[in-house]
Amino acid sequence: MKRIYSIIVVSLLLASLGIYNYIDGRKSETMLSNGGVSLEDFKPKAGQLSPAQELPDFNEQMISFGSAQPKLQLINFWASWCGPCELEAPDLQKIHEKYSNSLVLYGVNATKDDRERQARQFVEDQGFTFDILFDREGDITNLYKVGTFPTSFLVDRDGVIRERINGVITLEQWERIIEQYM
Description:
Elements: H1 2-33, E1 53-56, E2 62-65, E3 72-78, H2 83-99, E4 103-109, H3 116-126, E5 131-134, H4 139-143, E6 151-155, E7 161-166, H5 171-180
Parallel strand pairs: 3-4, 4-5
Antiparallel strand pairs: 1-2, 3-6, 6-7
């Protein structure tokens, strides 16, 4: 009986070690594929590196965002049912038009919490001409720890989050923030 017990204990220890090594290896792979940013340790706040991400756009083309890029990035999480999102929509379009030479605006629809058909209609009704991305699984929305809509992140050219904005701010406030990092 002691022998069976010993075999079970040793087997459990070896299995635990194997699982730990697998998880540790996956974490290293994740860090390498995201420019050294561990997705487990990612805290979406000013000063943190933003991990490279990819989502499908309005035409199902995969768009990369979040990491170092030649322009500033404004990543805006929204939903079609969100009243404040509708309120800020005209300002986002104005920001895109005014700063398109130095800033890329990504509108990330929280599709898991929305209806894609309604989101597409919202985009058409608003006349958006910036990139609209669909987070159908909710992974990116969860990664950025978005709990309210709209939530926006300003990411600099080095891929560092410079601002996190929860809720709606005025166009003038947006302009001051953006121009500070240009």
